Amino acid sequence: MIRATKLVALAVVCAVCVGEGCSSSADDTPYVPAVATGGASGGGTGGAGPTAGSGGASVEEDAGGVDANATGGSSGNHSAPGGGTGGGAADDTGATGGSGGNHSAPGGGGASGGTGGDSATGGTGGSSSSSAASGTIVPLYTYPSDPTWARIIDVKQAHPQVTIRAIINPDSGPGPSRNPSYVTGVANLHAAGIVVLAYVTTSYASKSASAVHAEIDTYHDWYPGLDGVFFDEMSSTPGDEAYYSGLTQYVKGLGYTVTVGNPGTDTAPGYVGTVDTLLIYESDGEPSSSTLEGWHDNYDKSNFGIIPYAVPSFDAAFVQTARPQVGFIYVTNDDLPNPWDSLPPYFEDLVAALD
Q: Domains of the chain (ranges plus CATH)?
């Protein structure tokens, strides 16, 4: 995000008590490796989440049929990326069931399972297809009376299936005192099904864990309805992973369900799982597809999000290209010094494209 230390001096921001940092709903899920789904027809389901799926049961024949002990499909493999094996054959002892879907994108399973064959070999399961992006993460760095708060609620209500995470930022953190406008605003966002995150900066892991805990505790005491915490200025340096894992553990111990970290650039695989989602791109203009590919393909895309700014018009083709790689996409036409003090005119188009 735009760093808090660079924006404190902005008079317009100070006027509305909005810090310039970079950000319990049921539609958020923590990190799990990508696992493909096996053949649906004729047998077993491949692994989903951390547990491998069960193999297909053998199919018993009626009297006069061929042997009743046809071999069922084997369990789906739990690996990233792993394909589940399909179900048992309909006839013939030892016949092979349909193969599970081949994994070709994070989180994708077989689009259609293999059908058990009449003869020795069952049909082959479908190839994986990319599922829709999980949603969008919006740095809502405006005051609760600003029209952006009502607008984001309206868009969520028009597209209830799309996960919208909104980051609130009273004063580059919780601020010096409880703000009744934020109490009401957070409650309204939460009631609309928006996942509300509290902004906390970590100063690239140089801020003590106890200081971060204190800010989190303040949010927890002052603003019921929060769902989690957004860690800005997140380190991407090897060796700091335990710092963020500890912060996430602390957040979850308070009953919150979501953590998002913002290195603002590509990071290392060791950081996957230290928070629920990593923002791997925060810059002007849309990232290239090569920026979003590579080692990230080994993990479920819900682990990654992007927040490009200074994008003048909505680019539906870009969103469709990015969806297989990242789970959370936000784009705005706003620009420096503060890209996060508005919603783009095409915000509903963006959310509709994720629906």
A: 4-28+134-354 (3.20.20), 35-129 (no CATH)
